[in-house]
Design a protein that fits this description.
This protein is an all-beta fold and 71 residues long. Helices cover 0% and strands 38% of the residues. The strands form two sheets. Strands 4-1-6 form a three-stranded antiparallel sheet, with no helix packed on it. Strands 3-2-5 form a three-stranded antiparallel sheet, with no helix packed on it. The protein starts with a strand and ends in a 7-residue tail after the last strand. The mean pLDDT is 89.
């Protein structure tokens, strides 16, 4: 879950050490607790999710409200 706004930047999402996507969180309307990325697996296992702020010029802000895990 993330917050989005005009000054929100980009973030890379890594799963188990592999980059899976880049998110651009810019929005003309301020929004909170938005789900912007999902991942599912066919079987149960331990995984590591890492969010890395890109440092977008003029939009350096990335706010995470939380990560939701559903089993």
């Amino acid at each position: 879950m993330v917050s989005r706004a005009v000054n929100s930047g980009q973030a890379h999402v890594y799963v188990d050490g592999q980059k899976v996507t880049t998110l651009d969180l810019r929005s003309s309307v301020r929004a909170f607790r938005n789900a912007v990325w999902t991942q599912s697996w066919s079987s149960s296992a331990q995984h590591t999710v890492k969010i890395v702020v890109v440092g977008t010029s003029g939009r350096p802000t990335v706010i995470t409200d939380g990560i939701v895990y559903v089993k």
